[in-house]
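Sample A.
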Amino acid sequence: MNKFIALFSICLASLTFAQKGLAVKVGLQTTGILGAKIGDNKNGFGFYAGLSNSFKLDETFSFQPELLYSYQTFNNVNVSINELIGGIETEENLRARFDYEYKTHFIKLPLLLKYQPKDIYIEIGPELAYNLSSRVNSEDKFNELPDIEGKVYNTNDFQLALLVGSGYQFNNNISAGLRAGFGFTKFIENSYIKNFNVSFGISYKIK
């Protein structure tokens, strides 16, 4: 936690006090599970907002750190009893039964290398994220068990992902981009869930 706070502070300071390139970012996103091992993936939707800055390395390359708040949802659906707890593979135990909806809140620190020879740009780099809170809602399709909503325990507070993206610079202040993120870290310790994320956003340079 202390390491994250230190990194958070450094990134915030670099974003706030740099002389050029400070921008506000907002966007929409969809999140899912990479290769769901039980049940099926069903993407959820969310949004993000924050700040970015750009430090030119030469005429075409720049380093772009960002500080974002991210609200994400994703779903693990059609989970059978057999997939949850094992046991005898009867017809009933193998039937798709439970749906799980996850709602998460993250602080994210993308650290991107950006290549922009003209108006179109591409970007790539790691993303560090801290899980502020996560909740899950479970639903029994057979209506034999009540719906349950509560906090997700044993989550990995620190998440690591690889980001790749591309976008277009409309003018000196406004740009729009599409970005994909592929998670390396399991969402919950000792689980199968790793997330992928696709987002579309707009950036407005304020400094």
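Sample B, a different protein:
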Amino acid sequence: MRKRFVIIFLMFIYSFQESKYKILDFGKFEITVPYNWNKFNEKGLDSYIGGIITDTNDTLKFDLGRYSQDLIKSDYPMVYDSQRLAELTKKELEMLPKTKHLIVDSTTGNINYHEYLQYQFKSDSINCFKAKFITPRNKGFGESGVYIDSLKGSDQMHNKISFNIYGWYLDEKTQKRFFKALKTLKLKENCENN
């Protein structure tokens, strides 16, 4: 009986803690995340970079600056010849059998590459900006995140500031919590009504 009580008590404590959130303030922006996620800082050369470590030790990295990568541009089809197959990481090779992919002798020929695209995209808004969300078509295989094309400035003036934040190989629960946190993102200096 005592053992059962301890287990129930621990489950209660865990579920109570799981519902707590905190705000991580990165100076230029803030985001509300689960209480047991923590921020880290990095030193960037041409951008403000850093990130968040989740409770499952996943790393969610951000890049705010002129050269922040548009995540949509990394949507390569999961069609592999021997050279591309050799470029996959050990983790990707382990995960590959559970994905929709195609292994070919040659990438030339009649292949429907669209059928094997790695990512899906959704347009939405965050704060006062249009945002592009990216998720892997094969759960957990690839990156999940968001890209905001222009916080201020323009390409013509060569002063456009963009933002992305993403994580690799997130399980379904972590990805769901990450996207919930992204909807709380407040880009302090860039929206009039923060």
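Observation for Sample B: The longest helix spans residues 2-18.
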